[in-house]
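Much of our argument rests on the idea that a fold can be written as discrete symbols. In the encoding step, the backbone of a single protein was reduced to a row of integers, each denoting a local shape. This step matters because it turns folding into a mapping between discrete strings. For completeness, the protein is quoted in full, as a sequence line and a line of structure tokens:
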Amino acid sequence: MQVKRITPVLFVPEIEPCVAFWSERLGFEKTVEVPEGDRLGFVILRKGDVEIMYQSFTSAEKDAPVIAKEINQGRTFLYVDVEGLDDVIAAMKGVNVVVPPRTTFYGAKEIGVNDPAGHVIMFAETGAQG
């Protein structure tokens, strides 16, 4: 068996603010969208070989009612390895910072923010100076 890709699916009350977060701040493109009434129910965002998916709680409850309770119980923490963390920090102006810029004991320069749904996104540049 060969694992080809792992793509996170983040569950949220509404997708549209998350699309704006990834596309306007980080240059991701919406490659797939599935409507749910007058809103989005599901979306795939992509930049290069990197993907992230969002699905609304309403859509997930209809799609997988057996696990809806688990879906509604928590937030996700993503660790995103980047090049050029200073550019990411600049793009996060006005976003809720939950871990201020720091350099870790293992040499990563990091910043942690909340996406519009409250998920923690930790951006890190490994081997960064300073």
